């Protein structure tokens, strides 16, 4: 058994890991905006003409989501590519001013595996600078847009970050054995793009149509109930240009109400989760 697997197994069996709470949850958003469509153009050039579709995220989705979570005094984590932050600085400032965490999501929406080590390092540093210029704070967490190079986590650690949120290996945080980082895993089951990532043409190679809202939110609520029953961590991954549609925000509010109504689930940001986990178990 590898050291990393030992770390995950140990994390899975800690007594009362959440202190006064039964479980924990975090709402995360990848603010990919236009960069999602530009990256897809590498697979099909026709996607390049659709980058305007990404405007919906920062222009409509972000204000709508901020309004929702402000109503319940809940802060979220927004993973933002550096180029998106450069092109939509007011959206990033708006999120930060309303208490939401701004985290690192690369510079473009190109996978680190598709670029040289030099380019990755340069773009990684650039995103840190952009976020710090806009918020006054460097990002403390990272989520890859897809895949990693061997050096990716080195860059995260060397930047003094607290956590990575890219792996999909468990449903609890854990202290990585290979880096001085907390890992906050996610899963496609709890990702809105899986259900609603759709384009009429060209199509995404994995799209399966636009799923009805009801079954999706029923799935997410059932997963939350199972997570809460077992004392685990619920990580929801969403995109403002997808979940920011009016009816989806309404359904998201119902899910949020359900979670808060338990009174025993800690709903917080990835940064706060990572700080808690490090302070308690490091």
TrEMBL record:
Coiled coil where?
Answer: none
Q: Which GO terms describe its molecular function?
A: hydrolase activity, acting on carbon-nitrogen (but not peptide) bonds
Q: Which residues form the NodB homology domain?
A: 48-267
List the SUPFAM superfamilies hit by this protein, alphabetically. Answer: Glycoside hydrolase/deacetylase
GO-annotated biological processes: carbohydrate metabolic process
The protein's name: Polysaccharide deacetylase
Biological source species: Haloferax prahovense (strain DSM 18310 / JCM 13924 / TL6)
